């Protein structure tokens, strides 16, 4: 089993040169050809929820996981129509206490303010057949918290989304990709089924469901690189 799980953040117009973390903003046209290439290569793009039986080995097929971190409104505006066009699903990991706010965790770095989804956006996302995952309450760096604080970030985000939207939240994503063994245990105890990281590589047989590798798709990704990320050991060698 070698399943690529793609990691995106924003799908939006390219920021000005010199903008910090500019590479995390993928242009809508680029996202469009990437999804088209997946379909042309015979892959189905799936949310973490829809990917579960493939990860467990209950199903087999040419599948790719599609995930978005942080819950930006531009995911609904620009990614959702493309996903619908190709019959794909995706998971977006939201920050529960910042619904309808902006990416405040980035402001000190000089990254432009970008709106996050509000409850209406999340309802549109879910009504479109997509999946919602948790990215903590405040986009907290779990390594900077004590166990009680970390448990609250992990548990309360799940509880909030489930109460507000009536949707079971089964999947978690570590903010900044930072975690340790204690955090994996907390995520499992909270009732999540997986937790994704920023560690590079495809998912292989015997993987740890609470430390799942992903493949980042950056603004500058070329068609050749995209194919290599999906179909070869290109990312596995960088894990």
Structure description:
The chain has 239 residues and is an alpha/beta fold. The chain has helices at 28-40, 48-55, 73-86, 119-127, 147-165, 181-189, 223-231, and strands spanning 2-3, 5-8, 10-11, 25-26, 44-46, 63-70, 91-94, 131-134, 171-173, 194-200, 203-204, 212-216. It has a single domain (2-238), classed as Glycoside hydrolase/deacetylase (TIM Barrel, Alpha-Beta Barrel). Helices cover 34% and strands 19% of the residues. The strands form 3 sheets. Strands 2, 5, 6, 7, 8, 9, 10 and 12 form an 8-stranded parallel β-sheet that branches. α3 (73-86) links the parallel β6 and β7.
Helical proportion, percent range? 25-40%
Proportion of strand residues? 15-25%
- How would a textbook summarize the main sheet? 8 strands, parallel
Q: Which segments are poorly predicted (pLDDT under 50) over 5 or more consecutive residues?
A: none
The total tally of domains equals 1
Order of helices and strands: EEEEHEHEHEHEHEHEEEH
Secondary-structure class: alpha/beta
The backbone outline, from C-alpha atoms, is: globular
Distance between the termini: 16 Å
Number of strands: 12
Radius of gyration: 17 Å
Count of runs of 4 or more consecutive helical residues:
7
How does CATH name the architecture? Alpha-Beta Barrel
Q: In CATH, what is the homologous superfamily?
A: Glycoside hydrolase/deacetylase
CATH hierarchy class name:
Alpha Beta
CATH topology: TIM Barrel
């Amino acid at each position: 089993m070698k399943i690529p799980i793609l990691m995106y953040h924003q799908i939006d117009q390219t920021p000005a040169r010199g903008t910090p973390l500019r590479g995390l903003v993928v242009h809508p046209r680029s996202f469009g050809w990437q999804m088209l290439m997946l379909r042309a290569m015979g892959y189905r793009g799936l949310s973490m929820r829809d990917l579960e039986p493939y990860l467990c080995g209950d199903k087999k097929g040419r599948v790719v996981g599609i995930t978005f971190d942080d819950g930006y409104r531009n995911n609904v505006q620009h990614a959702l129509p493309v996903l619908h066009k190709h019959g794909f699903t995706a998971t977006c990991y939201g920050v529960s206490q910042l619904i309808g706010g902006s990416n405040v965790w980035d402001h000190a770095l000089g990254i432009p303010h970008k709106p996050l989804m509000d409850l209406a956006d999340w309802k549109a996302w879910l009504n479109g057949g997509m999946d919602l995952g948790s990215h903590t309450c405040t986009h907290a760096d779990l390594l900077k918290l004590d166990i009680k604080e970390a448990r609250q970030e992990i548990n309360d985000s799940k509880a909030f989304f489930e109460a507000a939207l009536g949707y079971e939240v089964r999947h978690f994503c570590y903010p900044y990709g930072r975690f340790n063994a204690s955090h994996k245990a907390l995520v499992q105890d909270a009732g999540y089924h997986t937790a994704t990281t920023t560690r590079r590589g495809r998912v292989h047989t015997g993987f740890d469901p609470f430390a799942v590798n992903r493949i980042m798709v950056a603004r500058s990704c070329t068609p050749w690189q995209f194919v290599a990320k999906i179909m070869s050991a290109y990312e596995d060698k960088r894990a």
